[in-house]
What does this fold into?
Amino acid sequence: MNEERIKISQDLLSDGFGLIAASGYINNEGGQAIADAANKLMGQGCKTLLIDLDGTRIINSIGVSILLEILEKLMDEKGQLAFCNLTPTISKTFEIMGLVQYASVYSDREAAQSAIAGDASV
Amino acid sequence: MEVVLHLPVVPNVELVAAKAVETLGGALGMHQTHIEAASVAMVEACLNAMEHGGGPFTVRLRSDNQESRPCLVIEVEDHGEGFDPATAPKNSASRVHGSTMKRGWGLTLIRELMDEVQIRSGPGMTQVSMRKYVERAP
It folds into this structure.
């Protein structure tokens, strides 16, 4: 089961725009690892976070609940959350749990970065 | 084709059951998206069994061909206090958004991700039985 252990990387892409790449099982530990990365980026002034789930195929509702908390924290800060590279099942789970009602979903990282950069230039 | 797993309550043991879904679903020729949906439902059923079952629990997987429609049948059985499935609340995004209580999604996700779900529960035994058809229903 080691291959399911979450792997996280984070990057400050531009002023106020942070990227978190997460692959592996999003359970309580995986969700918390993403939340820790999000808090670090928000502490650096990020108000827009893109979470790339390429390589994540299994999740549970506890992990997704932690992602909901990240979303609400960003909304409180007038920020925005986006996801990319979701499998159809993860996308459906996010829809059921209400994440996609308030977060943006893009097919891949390039599409997300392009759309977010476009929003920022308006 | 049948797999029976007697699982202890240890961290991430639900992934053992999810792996069994992947293996049997693949052997049945199930589409990867259906396998992943059944895997998430399995994970949620196992988490419920661990949280409410109070001890080791049993997972059974088998193939079935009901009315010439091949499917994967999953049963998760625990030995907790039980509950009334008819009164179990259906969670919704509007209920949890802005609330500090964000848990309680297991049964809602299972019902949404699987094709058929039956729950039998009473004192000492809860069994969640679910089906995922190899092909989507016409």
Remarks:
- Residues 2-133 of chain B form a domain with the Heat Shock Protein 90 fold (CATH 3.30.565.10).
- The first strand of chain B starts at residue 2 and ends at 7.
- Strands of chain B lie at 2-7, 57-66, 69-78, 116-122, 125-133.
